[in-house]
Amino acid sequence: MLREIERAAWDLFAAVGFDRTTVEEISRNAGVSRRTFFRYFRSKEELLSFSVEHFGQRVAQRFAEAPKNRKPLAALEDAILFVTQEEMHDTRQPKEMLGLMFEEPTLRGRFLCALSRWVPVLGKELAKRKAYRGDAARCDLVAALYCTAFDQAHLRWYREGNVDLPTQIRRAFRQLRDTNGPVSSR
Amino acid sequence: MLREIERAAWDLFAAVGFDRTTVEEISRNAGVSRRTFFRYFRSKEELLSFSVEHFGQRVAQRFAEAPKNRKPLAALEDAILFVTQEEMHDTRQPKEMLGLMFEEPTLRGRFLCALSRWVPVLGKELAKRKAYRGDAARCDLVAALYCTAFDQAHLRWYREGNVDLPTQIRRAFRQLRDTNGPVSSR
DNA sequence: TCATAAAATGACACTCTGTGCCATAATCTG
DNA sequence: CAGATTATGGCACAGAGTGTCATTTTATGA
After folding, report:
1. How many CB pairs under 8 A join A and B?
2. Which residues are within 8 A (CB) of A142 and not within 5 positions of it... i.e. 6 or more apart?
3. Reduced DSSP (H G I as helix, E B as strand, rest coil) percent helix, strand, coil of chain B, to 5
4. What are A84-122's pLDDT values in tens digits?
5. Which one of A18, A159, A170, B84 has the minimum C-beta count within 10 Å?
6. Which of B109, B141, B179 sits opposite A142 (nearest CB)?
7. How far: A89 CA to C5 C1' (Å)?
8. How far apart are CA A141 and CA A50, in angstroms?
């Protein structure tokens, strides 16, 4: 049921836009009542944060399972790339979804909010690693920076389009690591 | 008028919370009609992004005026700290405002969305600097990273509270620059 | 197979947000 | 002061989201 609603919603969003899609229509297309829609999703917007948060959880899990000898940030990058590739397989219209999340301010906010909820989760995993032990705040910051690079990579992918998403992500992460490099040092 | 509405709104938000405050009440306390409220603000939430976006514009302006011989990232940090200190003076309940923006998911989203709008603005300023010329994407990434560090600094300030905000911002920026340092290198 | 408990769904009424429309009041301009 | 422009208020309406209760579906045990 949950999947049916999600599908119906995304079809409509892609077709006529987020605002012009009413919960009424989504429900009808999914074959349930309006009231039932709100039993599965707290709001129309939650349709979005839903998948984003799920994504974050999977990254955190994959990250937690990484081999111990792998450097923390490399493992985090691995995890993000792995889940991204999985996701690209499952999602019907990844670029359309992303488009909405960049164009519609409300959805953009939702997306970023969901993304920011990864921070403590990933930060906690980072904190387990030897190199980071004992500096929770720093772990959270690093996690947040990776989330930001992740977001920027998606933005580039969405805007430029000729380079695939994993490549953009790798690029952004490389640039993140090089932030303190020769060019931008102060 | 705009200021009256803003004041009335924040007083109510701080008193009873964002959700439990209706536009009806805000308008009444500000001495205008509900309809007029929506002429000044597109939505209840816009009350937030409003100040955040204004903040970002001031940072970008201050950044643009920085002496040319100052290193770009140092100048950006200066600008952010300067505007922050200005803002702390003007704002009535900075911590309460911030609290709402961290606790209420909707507002958190709004805040992050507004914050993310700084990115192209700041990125464009960075691109003017010699060291960054010609790499717009990288400029945007760096700008986004600074915004993230800025956000994390606020989060720490809100959570810990015993350290003042400018100090937290300086700390976060220092950690950002050290991301590639000995501890976290991969 | 059937009765009963539990869970899911639908129907309805209600509050609140946000918007279009038009009338009225305030303000500006000559 | 007259006329034009602009700000405001009032009203009606669509849509989001919620509480409540009746009804249906599903699960469970004899």
Report:
1. 111
2. A73, A123, A126, A132, B179, B184
3. 80, 0, 20
4. 988 888 777 778 788 888 888 888 988 999 889 889 988
5. A159
6. B179
7. 42
8. 24
